Amino acid sequence: MTALYASSEIRRIEQTAQLQFPPYTLMQRAGQAAADTALRLLGGNPHKARILVLVGPGNNGGDALEAATILTHAGADVVALLQADSTKLPPDAANALARAKRAGVHMMPTEQFSTIDSVTWSLVIDGLLGIGVTRALDGPLRSLVATVNTFSCLVLALDVPTGLDADTGIVVGPDGIAIVADHTVTFIGDKTGLHTGDGPDYAGKVTIAGLNLPENLSVPPRSWLNAPELFAHNLQPRARNSNKGSFGSVAVIGGATGMAGAPILAGRAAAKSGAGKVFVGFLDAAPAYDSGQPELMCRHAAEIDLASATLVVGTGLGTSQQAHDVLIKTLMAQSQLLLDADALNLIALEPALQQLVGQRRHSGLATVMTPHPLEAARLLGSSAADIQFDRLKAARGLAQRFNAVVVLKGAGSIIARPDGDTVINPTGNPALATGGSGDVLSGICGALLAQGWSDWHAAIGAVWLHGSAADLLVSQGCGPIGMTAGELIPAVRSLFNSLVNKH
What percentage of the chain carries pLDDT values higher than 90? Predict the structure, then answer.
C-alpha cells in the first residue's frame, strides 16, 4: 500500500530526521538513491556516459551533486550546471559541492550554459528545485528548462520535476513550464502531485527512496495510491450455490431524448461487472430491448421500483422538469445511489437537492458522486480552472459538503470521502477521453455497490478497473486514439475475474 504525502508532511519528517542523524546523512542517502536510479537508466554501464546534472540553490541541488560524485566515481563523464550562488548554498549542499569538485565533476562555467544543447547527453539529472517551487519559472531558469525539454536523452528528476507543484500536480504559474522527466525518484515518501493533474505527464515513472528512516518518524497518511490491495477483501470467488438474486440489482435512470445511449452503456457495464439483474429506466419512451445486450430490462423510468435496486442516476438524464422530478424521487429512495452527469448538474442548481444528498448518509444510505471538473465546479460554485488548480482540495471539499464518496474524474482521478481520506488512481490513459467513458464507470460502480461493496470500496475498485481496462486495451493496440467507451466493458469483465482468481 503506497501512502501519499503533502510536501509539508515530508518537510516535517525530514526536519525530525535531521535532528536524529549526523549532518549530511540524508543527503548522502538521497544522492546514492539518485545515482542508483541513474545507473539503472543507463543499463548499469556508466562508462562513456555523458551526464548533465542541473544543480539548484537548495538541498535538492545538493542531492544532485552527491549523485554526480558517485556517478563520476563509477566512470561516467559528469558535468554539473550550477544554477545558484555557490557561496550561499545550505551547509549540506555546500559540502556536496566540495565533494563533487574533489571527485572531478566538471563545473560548467556560466558563459558555457548556452552550449548544453550542442552536446549529446546520455542522461540529464534535474536537481534544480524539487518541492521548493513556489512561483512560475522565469529568466535563465525558464530558458534552461525549455532547452532540456528539447533533448532526446532520458531525464531523471529528483524528488519532483522542477516547476511542478508537489501537492497539486499542476505546473506552477499561468504560463508555467516544468521539466518533463522520464523517471522521478522521490525521497522519504511519495507525493500526491506526482500522480494527479499534470503530474503523470511530467514525472514519468515514479520510484520511492525512503532513505532508511525509522518508521516512528512517519506521519499517518491521509492519501494513498489506488491498487487492488485497497479493495482486495471484496474479491471473493462466487459460491456454487448462487443465483441472480445473490448479486443484487442495478437500475440505471436516464435516457432523455437523444441521449439513450448513455444509460445503455452504464447498464451494459453493470451487467458485465457482475450485477445479478440490470434495469434501464428511460425518461422518454423505452426501447423494447437492447439488441446488443438483451439481458437488460428496458422500462420507462416511472416503472422502476426505486426501493429494490442500487440506483445509477444521471447518465443522459437531461435537465428538464421531468428529469428534476425523477431525481427527487431517487434522492429520497431508501437505496444505494450513484449520481453522475445531469443529476449532478441539477443538484448544483438547487440548494434543496443538495440538502437531500447530504442527509442520505445520516440514514445509512450510500451515496457516490462522480463529477468531471466542470460538474465539480458547478457543485462548488467555482470554475473548472479552480478545480484543476487543486484537485485534492476540490475532491475533499465535495465529499465533505455532500457527505458522500466523491470521484473527481480526470488524469489521476481522486476518490475522496467525508472524513478527508483520499485515494489517487494511477491507472488509465487518454483513451478514456471519449464520450460515454463516464457512463461505463458509473455502471461498474453501481454493480459493485449492488454486490455488497461499501461505497468507498466500490468507488476505488470501479475507478481502478475502469482505468486498467483502458490500459489493457492500449497495450493490445486498441487505442488510445479512437477507442470507444463500449470497448472498455468486456475488458473490465476480464480484469475483474482475473483479480478474483488471484485473490
Answer: 92
b (16+ CB within 10 A) / e for 249-268: bbbbbbbbeebbbbbbbbbb
Is it true that 3-225 and 248-502 share their CATH fold?
Answer: no
Domain over 248-502 is classified CATH 3.90.180.10: no
Alpha carbons 439 and 262: distance in angstroms, whole number: 6
Average confidence (pLDDT) over 280-309: 94
Rounded CA-CA distance 476/2 in Å is: 28
Contact indicator for 368, 455 with CB cutoff of 8 Å: yes
Domain ranges of the chain: 3-225, 248-502
- On the question of pLDDT at 200 being above 90, the answer is yes
DSSP lists the bridge partners of residue 107 as: 80
- Please list the helix, strand and coil fractions of the chain in percent, rounded to the nearest 5, in that order: 45, 15, 35
Tell me how far apart the alpha carbons of residues 165 and 178 are, in angstroms, rounded to a whole number: 9
Provide the β-strand partners of residue 466. none
What is the helix (H) or strand (E) element at residue 422, kind and residue range? strand 422-424
Residue found under cell 525530514? 14
List beta partners, residue 311.
251, 337
**From residue 191, how far is each of 118, 174, 210 by CA, in Å?**
34, 22, 12
Domain at 3-225, CATH homologous superfamily:
YjeF N-terminal domain (3.40.50.10260)
Residue 1 has pLDDT above 90, yes or no: no
User: What does the alpha-carbon distance between residue 451 and residue 241 come to, in Å, rounded to a whole number?
Assistant: 16
Q: Which residues sit opposite 474 in a β-bridge?
A: none
Round to whole Å and give the CA distance between 459 and 440.
13
> In 3-state terms, what secondary structure has residue 157?
strand
Q: Is the dihedral of CA 384, 386, 387, 388 positive or negative?
A: positive
**160 exposure class (CB count in 10 Å sphere: 0-12, 13-18, 19+):** buried
Q: By C-alpha distance, which of 447, 499, 448, 446 is closest to 469?
A: 499
What does the alpha-carbon distance between residue 483 and residue 501 come to, in Å, rounded to a whole number? 27
> In the 3-class helix/strand/coil scheme, how is 89-106 assigned residue by residue?
CCHHHHHHHHHHHHHCCE
In one letter, which amino acid is 405?
Answer: V
How many Å is the maximal CA-CA distance in the chain? 81
Round the average pLDDT of the chain to a whole number and report it: 96
Contact at 8 Å (CB) between 438 and 372? yes
Query: Distance between CA 256 and CA 316 in Å, rounded?
Result: 6
